Amino acid sequence: MAPTIVLAGAGHAHLLLLYEEMKSPVRAAEYVLISPNRYQYYSGMYAGYIEGVYEKDETRVDVAALCSAAGIRFIEAAVTSVDAKQKQVHTSTEAVSYDKLSLNLGAASGGVPGIKANARSIKPSYLLPKTAEQLDQAGSIIIAGGGAAGVETALALKAKDAERKSSRDVTILTSSTLLPEAPAAAQKKIRRELSAKGVLYREHTPVTNVASGRVDTPVAVFSADEVLWLAGAGAPAVIAASGLADKRGFLPVTKHLQYQGDPDIFGAGDCVTFLSVPSLAKNGVYAIRQAPILRENLKRSLAGKNLQPFQPQRQYMAILSLGGRRAFMFRGRHHARGRLVWQLKDRIDRKFMDQLHKAAKPGS
Ligand SMILES: Cc1cc2nc3c(=O)[nH]c(=O)nc-3n(C[C@H](O)[C@H](O)[C@H](O)COP(=O)(O)OP(=O)(O)OC[C@H]3O[C@@H](n4cnc5c(N)ncnc54)[C@H](O)[C@@H]3O)c2cc1C
């Protein structure tokens, strides 16, 4: 009988792994993919979806259809725990045995009291349509988090307002500066962009508690109809619940994307701590780049071969939508913005999604 590789989570790395596996004439293993929803929304298009630039079907991959086209079993359920001793994954519906397991579970919102009960989230990604709908009905919105996700989302909300001739109060509260990973000159441009669009922002203002329609910070209490939590990537609870977590709750993986404590467990994307570079940014770019190494190493480890290292690039190009089909990009100290940048982003994002859409609907 062929060995079983269980893929937990339909994150970027697992979707691309499946996509490549579909092209392979011979499979070294049976794959099982487990994810709580048949749809996976692509983060590069979240802001465009919130703004109304992209339709739902353009923004998401039908994971169940992709698995069916690949001849792979899909279980629509959340992983509730991993029993590494028994080599079993427990889900909300059944237990699944594995020879090799890979976790690509993304990040969770967390770390501050009241988030779960009182804040909206886009994680897991299938929450996107409902969250966007709720934000559409609000008159005032606080976004906790001034990284790329918070900035893009604030500008998307304002661009939608301009389109439908309405106006929501949008405020970003962030613990450090806006876009902390960007050079100072780029941050300055983003501050100007936000002000020009009527987005209020408070830097060095961490949210310490979320209550219904209200957030607390060390400097003041802020009120709004809705609070959207986009402040950093927290660890999915299932990793700690399974006894696999590091101090911060993430799965610690070696340069081979292999869990430090068990050679049969691998991981990629936001849910891991990459031990060679523990501060590695948590974003879709790295999750995508990890896919080929993850796929190769799962197969090599089944065959008892040497594993390949994942070597993250030091710098990557970040492109943020500014709303109104304009975008801003930066890489290292360089930055640019405008319609051409948006066209570039749109092309990259559509290309990424087109390959998965076509794979999920063979013959279309
Ligand atoms: C508004 C916004 C905009 C962003 N824009 C960008 C961008 O333009 N570019 C970029 O690179 N990054 C962007 N990011 C960050 C990006 O979303 C994440 O870094 C990226 O999605 C991480 O990918 P991943 O593969 O680790 O996991 P994800 O893409 O988050 O996927 C995780 C998967 O695991 C599943 N899952 C979760 N819990 C369980 C469970 N218990 N059992 C089984 N399955 C589970 C989920 O349903 C999902 O299928 C943005 C984030 C936000 C919030």
From TrEMBL:
<comment type="similarity">
    <text>Belongs to the NADH dehydrogenase family.</text>
</comment>
<keyword id="KW-0285">Flavoprotein</keyword>
<dbReference type="Pfam" id="PF07992">
    <property type="entry name" value="Pyr_redox_2"/>
</dbReference>
<dbReference type="InterPro" id="IPR036188">
    <property type="entry name" value="FAD/NAD-bd_sf"/>
</dbReference>
<keyword id="KW-0274">FAD</keyword>
<dbReference type="GO" id="GO:0019646">
    <property type="term" value="P:aerobic electron transport chain"/>
</dbReference>
<dbReference type="InterPro" id="IPR051169">
    <property type="entry name" value="NADH-Q_oxidoreductase"/>
</dbReference>
<keyword id="KW-0560">Oxidoreductase</keyword>
<feature type="domain" description="FAD/NAD(P)-binding">
    <location>
        <begin position="27"/>
        <end position="284"/>
    </location>
</feature>
<dbReference type="GO" id="GO:0003955">
    <property type="term" value="F:NAD(P)H dehydrogenase (quinone) activity"/>
</dbReference>
<dbReference type="InterPro" id="IPR023753">
    <property type="entry name" value="FAD/NAD-binding_dom"/>
</dbReference>
<protein>
    <submittedName>
        <fullName>NADH dehydrogenase FAD-containing subunit</fullName>
    </submittedName>
</protein>
